[in-house]
Amino acid sequence: MKQILKNDFPSDQVYQLKDLEAWPELGVSLAVLGNPIQHSLSPQMHNAAMAEMAQVDPEFNNWTYYKFQIHPDNLHQALDMFHSNGFLGLNLTVPHKVLATQWIKIGESAVKLSGASNTLIRGVDGYKGYNTDLYGLVKALESSFGINLQDQEVILLGAGGAARAAAIACAQAGVKSLTLINRTMSKLDTILESLDQLDEKPNTKTRGINEPVLALSHNPIVINATSLGLKKEDPAPIDLALLPHSTRVFDMIYNPDRTTLLKQAESLGMEVCNGLNMLAYQGERSLKIWTQKNPSSKTMFEAALNGLKQSQ
């Protein structure tokens, strides 16, 4: 009988639910689940970090991170199968990170507040969930712009899950004011309800997408948590022209690396950053949860950047 080797299951391949039916023991397995998942940079990031960690601790030569295409309708079944196959950790993308919360144990308050979990760790009878997106956003903003978020003014665009997590992250980081902007104002209610659960929250306002965006300070931070910008022909979600030139603009989108919003910001002399740093930092915390070690966010960022360049 042929011996099954780890190389027989390359980490850059997209796997399906049916592959779990006969998944062999391949050391310590991790995976990202999504629909679609083909263009995920997570395997490159995590496997690069673990290769570096293996130079100090050879144990990590036995760890591999995979990607699985899982339809939302099959997520519950998939989680059971990943657990029975011994997968130590899972990352979840939209919409899985919201759906999964009904079948996992809550590992931290951020999951309950955001209504989402993007990082699962295996327990005896199921998975426990965390949300590393909050950490990833705060670290990305503070490192990219060289600031401390405390007492900053933030203008947040969007009302979906990413915006909800961003609002909570900013509030917990101690921002002074938070302006929530969305096309449909009523969709901001979920974010407001989450903020109301915090012991302390910033001065919060809501505005429609077509209302003029004015700043209270001379150097606000604009965060785009909408999907506008994923397509190169997408317009910017707001007009930045009325904001000070010292505004900092952060777009969670990293592919393309310069959205229409960031291009306008650059033309106005504003400091800009896309979401690749956030991806690396949330990945760093996920890997730390699984390994109890301190992986390098720099290594993960460089691997993600290389993966992005190769895909273009």
Description:
The chain has 312 residues and is an alpha/beta fold. It has two domains: 6-131 and 277-311, Leucine Dehydrogenase, chain A, domain 1 (Rossmann fold, 3-Layer(aba) Sandwich), CATH 3.40.50; 134-274, NAD(P)-binding Rossmann-like Domain (Rossmann fold). Helix content is 34%, strand content 20%. The protein has helices at residues 42-54, 75-84, 96-99, 109-114, 133-145, 161-172, 189-196, 260-267, 276-291, 297-311, and strands at 14-16, 28-34, 63-69, 89-92, 105-106, 119-123, 126-130, 153-157, 177-182, 203-208, 221-224, 248-251, 271-273. It has a seven-stranded mixed β-sheet with strand order 1-3-2-4-6-7-5, with helices on both faces. The protein has a six-stranded parallel β-sheet with strand order 10-9-8-11-12-13, with helices on both faces. A hairpin with a 2-residue loop joins strand 6 (119-123) and strand 7. The relative contact order is 0.13. The mean pLDDT is 94.
Secondary-structure topology with pairs:
Layout: E1 14-16, E2 28-34, H1 42-54, E3 63-69, H2 75-84, E4 89-92, H3 96-99, E5 105-106, H4 109-114, E6 119-123, E7 126-130, H5 133-145, E8 153-157, H6 161-172, E9 177-182, H7 189-196, E10 203-208, E11 221-224, E12 248-251, H8 260-267, E13 271-273, H9 276-291, H10 297-311
Parallel strand pairs: 1-3, 2-3, 2-4, 5-7, 8-9, 8-11, 9-10, 11-12, 12-13
Antiparallel strand pairs: 4-6, 6-7
Helix pairs in contact: 1-10, 5-6, 5-9, 6-7, 9-10
